[in-house]
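Model it.
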Amino acid sequence: MVMLLWMLLAGAPAWGQPSPLGRGQQDQVGQGPVGPRDGESGYAPTTDVDVLLRTLQHGRQPEQIDAAKDLRRHVRLMISHLGFKDMALSMEARQSLSDLDETLAPVCISKLPQEHLMGVCAEILGMLETTEALPALELALEATENRGARRKVQRSVDHLQRLASVPPVSEPVND
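Modeled.
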């Protein structure tokens, strides 16, 4: 009885009536709407890399930060899939990381001068092992006074310098 009274006072729909959330969305008893309604602002995480890249390039500052964090999460997920025993999943992760190195790395390099994206983009470049980003990362390291971003940039610079100093493994010669 108390629950029903609370639902009526909170504006929840009565039993058997359609949800105010709109088509296709279901409201659970005692829970409000999940995510923003039409016309409201809000951010919902997405895994569509192309949408995230466009948002990182052309979005507003809060949207860019969220997109960069989602892209960082995606890169971490692909790296974690590299060690799987399932060869198909491992190969798919390797291909995805290669694609991200070609599409995401240039965007992150161009966004390094922006203080609000510097730390996340530096982490992404380090995870992707993009050694071409070393000069831009070193410039960003000199330019920033933000201790958190500076620490992330320094960690990526150290990692990429170690990678750059290791000679590539030579191909075995088949005679």
